[in-house]
Each structure stands twice: as C-alpha cells, then as structure tokens.
Design brief:
With about 200 residues, this protein is an alpha+beta fold. The protein is built from five helices and eleven strands. It has two domains: about 130 residues, Impact, N-terminal domain (Ribosomal Protein S5, domain 2, 2-Layer Sandwich); about 60 residues, Alpha-Beta Plaits. The strands form three sheets. Strands 2-3-6-4-5 form a five-stranded antiparallel sheet, sandwiched between helices. The longest helix is centred in the middle third of the chain and has 18 residues. The chain is elongated and about 80 Å long. Belongs to the IMPACT family.
Length: about 200
C-alpha cells in the first residue's frame, strides 16, 4: 500500500527577476511564496506599478498543502496561451503556496499562440529555476491533557518518539501541544489514547 504523501514543496523567498526575449517581446518572470489570495493581489498590484508600461501581467497560483486551490489568468492573451503554461510549470516543479507572474512588453511582432505558450512557459520555468525551493512535512497538531501524576508516562512517550513540543502548561492539570508528521499521526494518537488517564485530541489548522 502506498504511504500517504506528507510533504510539500514551496519557495523560501521571492525569486530574482528573470527575462526571456522572443522577437523583441520581453517576458519578465517572477515567483513568490504566498499563503493567501490577499498576498497574490498585493504582488500583482506591486508589479503593475513597477511595470506600468507593460501590455500583459499573466499569472498562475496554487495554494494548499493537501487540497489544492489554483487559478490561471491569461490577462488578455489568447485563451490558454499564458496562464495555463505558467500553471504547468507549477505542476512540473511540484510546488505549492506559490504565485508566478510573467509580465510582457510587446515588441511589435506577433508570436502566435505556439510562440506565446513557449514564452510564458519558459519565463515561468526560469523564475522557478532561479528560486530556492524547500520541502516541508505536513504535520498534525494534537493536544494532550492529563493530571500532574501522569507526567512521567507522557514525557516518556514524547521522548521515545522524538516528538515536537509546541507549547506546554505543566500545573495540576497539564496540557501539552505537539506536532506529529502526518504519516506518524495515527500511531502516536493511538499510543496516547491507550495510556490510562491521558486524553489526546487533534487540533484543526
């Protein structure tokens, strides 16, 4: 049986500006790490100010770690000649929580749909190649609740399984928040759930 996927790739920071030229048209590519549509809007507004003389600001974004949302926008170019080729590179590099924008200055010579697809795809690819891409694990968060006398039992499980403690309140009634890598989550949950006088509950993100 295939293990559930519990990692995702994203960017650590904005990419440097890249430039692809074809028949006098210039295509400036940018990649940004984003976590909301609000951030997407902010980056687009900034680029429209920076490149106010450009003809098109085409883009694609993808958000989410497991359930993905995405959007591709041709911004006036022929249908599917810009946004989808850019989105194709997001899929090809397997990145998420990312926005790629390609800004076009028209050079006076029409490139045709095939030429546009190639130009937008290439500028997006160059932006991602220039980016710092990292892999993160998808983690589940749990709250463990217990009375002070059970402390040793709980701490032993945490130590033996090398669990990441996010915060803790150790008084008469104790609470510890832990994060566990997704593929380990069920096993760790059962370990605590089977421990007498210890309650474990999963926290929503």
């Amino acid at each position: 049986m295939e293990e559930p996927k519990d990692t995702y790739k994203t960017l650590t920071k904005d990419s440097p500006e890249v430039l692809f030229k074809d028949k006098n048209s210039k295509f400036y590519g940018y990649a940004f790490p984003v976590t909301s549509e609000e951030e997407v809007k902010e980056h687009l507004e900034d680029l429209k100010k920076k490149h106010h003389a450009a003809r098109h600001w085409c883009y694609a974004w993808q958000l989410g770690k497991e359930d993905y949302q995405y959007r591709a926008n041709d911004d006036g170019e022929p249908s599917n000649s810009a946004g989808m080729p850019i989105y194709g590179q997001i899929q090809s590099f397997e990145v998420t929580n990312v926005l790629i924008v390609v800004v076009r200055y028209f050079g006076g010579v029409k490139l045709g749909v095939g030429g546009l697809i190639n130009a937008y795809k290439t500028a997006a690819q160059m932006a991602l190649e220039a980016s710092n891409i990292v892999e993160h694990t998808i983690d589940k968060r749990f709250e463990i609740a217990f009375d002070y006398p059970e402390m040793n039992k709980v701490m032993r499980v945490i130590k033996e399984n090398n669990l990441n403690v996010l915060e803790q309140k150790l008084e008469l009634d104790c609470r510890i928040l832990i994060s566990v890598r997704k593929k380990e989550a069920e096993r760790i949950y059962e370990k605590f759930d089977a421990t007498y006088k210890v309650k474990i509950s999963e926290l929503e993100d």
